[in-house]
Amino acid sequence: MVYIAKFLLPVVMFMGLLPIQAQAQKNTSFMPGEVWKDTDGNPINAHGGGVLYHEGTYYWYGEYKKGKTILPEWATWECYRTDVTGVGCYSSRDLLNWKFEGIVLPAVKDDPNHDLHPSKVLERPKVIYNKKTGKFVMWAHVESADYSKACAGVAVSDSPAGPFTYLGSFRPNDVMSRDQTVFVDDDGRAYQFYSSENNETMYISLLTDDYLKPSGRFTRNFIKESREAPAVFKYNGKYYMLSSGCTGWDPNIAEIAVADSIMGTWKTIGNPCTGPDADKTFYAQSTYMQPIIGKKDAYIAMFDRWKKKDLEDSRYVWLPVLIKNGAITIPWHEKWNLEIFDK
């Protein structure tokens, strides 16, 4: 036995010098509400996010939530929060397996007055590409800790994987801007959709040609209807907007609206969700609508299932948008893949 031990020792020592690469199991299906891991085996951290498709790759941007969730002592409502860490970015070619590209817009820790200081609020980042300038433009909801700032923040990058340079914040069209998204139309014009007037009204604002600020042209929609979490897509020449009611972190019924022109008039056509808990949007909230490149009339509805007392562990609910005879539904599936669009 002594001989064997001496014989094995160099082998064991040699094996100890070899790099051990832990590779996450490859995802083959969407599993809404389950822990979704990246290619390094870590849970994806991209909440309230959106997706950009650029040169064969999808990029998923979202709130990178890390650390303890707290409810401030002064809070008179459930404004649970984590310290701002920044905006995370993941890349994928198949929408299932995501590589972490890093925090592309980090918190600014040494300036308590900065929009991106850990004590502030950074939500719902979305990135669009400007073909004219060659810039990647990020819009996000930036807030003071007490949610009184109600501004949009803008950042730019030369690369989809960052880093992004923060340009500052403002109230677009001189009104509040909270839950928001951005959308680029077929003609290259870009629009910001945002909840305003204490979340009672949805604004749709045409951006300038460089996508960096409002053009001054806007419309007010769903006045006094209190809609938030807008997610927008275009199908068959019409515009569709999915949104939620305003009930804080708690789920409510989704609604979809349609318009012939992006600036309105918008008509609500009901709740597209079907299946168990459809009346509560599957205990989730809309954040983005992503077209699937290479498939006709195929979209993914992206939702967040918020865990208000542990925001880092909030989950993602991605579901297929099915269109049949002009009717749009978002059915619940415990497990699905893109083949659903081939049926």
From TrEMBL:
Biological process according to GO: carbohydrate metabolic process
Gene Ontology molecular functions: hydrolase activity, hydrolyzing O-glycosyl compounds
Coiled coil regions in record: none
Keyword Cell inner membrane listed: no
Signal sequence bounds: 1-24
Presence of keyword Hydrolase: yes
CDD domains listed in its UniProt record: GH43_CtGH43-like
Protein name (Swiss-Prot/TrEMBL): Glycosyl hydrolases family 43
Native species: Bacteroides faecis
